[in-house]
Amino acid sequence: MPIKSHLKDLYRVQHIGVSRKGMLRLDMNEANAALPDNFIASVLSHIDSDYLSMYPEYEALQEKIALSNGLKSENICLSNGSDAAIKYIFDALVSPGDTVLLTEPTFAMYPVYCKMFGATIVTVDYAMDLSLPLETYLESITGAIKLAVIVNPNNPTGTLIQKDDIVRIIKKAQACGVLVIIDEAYFHFCGETVIDKTLEYDNLIVLRTFSKLCAMASLRIGYAAASAGIIEGLRKVKPTYDVNGVAVLFALKLLNTHGLIDSLVREFMEGKAFLTDKLAAKGTEYISGNANFVLIKCPGEAEHIISSLARKNILVAGGFKQKMLRDYIRVNIAKRDIMERFFDEFAGVCENRRRHEIIKCSQDKS
User: Fold this and answer.
1) What's the predicted TM-score (pTM) here?
2) What is the pLDDT of residue 122?
3) 37-256 maps to which CATH number?
4) What residues contact residue 123 under an 8 Å CB cut-off, 6+ apart?
């Protein structure tokens, strides 16, 4: 049977047949080997046949998430990764023909869901310096918009919009009857959040994930925070028990382990400081950003560097279509020892390229 006509031209990246096991994975904003082995062992010790045979229970985790954010359990909707939370929002709140305001670039799943649900997309482009033209974005929020989306910090630019400016967006949207998603997938790396504002503004939805700092990408767990009314709407479209019990157990244990999140943040920031210091000493242009990655400028060399590193079992991102990002590779930050390995290999690739160009230039002259 043919799929729906509007889905025929919907492009989705395929990962079939491509294994990243055993690679140094700095390409998809995951956390590499971040959780301590003793923490993982302690969680697994609670999993037995009785636990696996029972449908998952969510109340304790919802209450813990709510408490840690100054909210109530009724303000939290668990999701199968934050991707699923986005789908809940579109399922419950966006109809075919509605207009969604996005930035360009943004997290790839937002335009995917817009096309999937038949929504019209309006975009505001990030500037060449990777800043968001805030006034332009505010002017774009009108009664014709159903949903406005900001990823903060943004992926793949790493750009952070300050809390006061985010509140300006929420207020303008509320005045126009517009829903707002503030996607805080990377908030651990900058400390900026508006999750507390979900108690004040009934048009605000904040998304979080355990995939980035918390190193649980394979467990697929995240959540939405919003007013009780919005959360009730999301629960109406949410599949029954779609968040698995093992993910719930890991997330609850992590939030109940005093100091673990702070320790993870320190380790990542130490790795980031090491990398940026080394890049600066080498004279390599970079953008540190406010998320869990660094953009490294490789003019005319990005594709070569990506492929050369891949041959050394190191994966980094690149090939961005946006003009302001075209010369950059994106490298996830990780603990210092991982950043040391990356930098040594990156510097070696750059040096080999430089020697090759010198030899080639010498041969051309002769």
Assistant:
1) 0.94
2) 98
3) 3.40.640.10
4) 101, 102, 103, 104
For residue range 74-99, what is the model confidence (pLDDT) as tens digits?
999 999 999 999 999 999 999 999 99
From the candidate CATH numbers 2.40.170.20, 1.10.760.10, 3.90.1150.10, 2.40.50.840, the one assigned to the domain spanning 5-29+260-365? 3.90.1150.10
Q: What is the pLDDT of residues 33-53, one digit of tens each?
A: 789 999 999 999 999 999 999
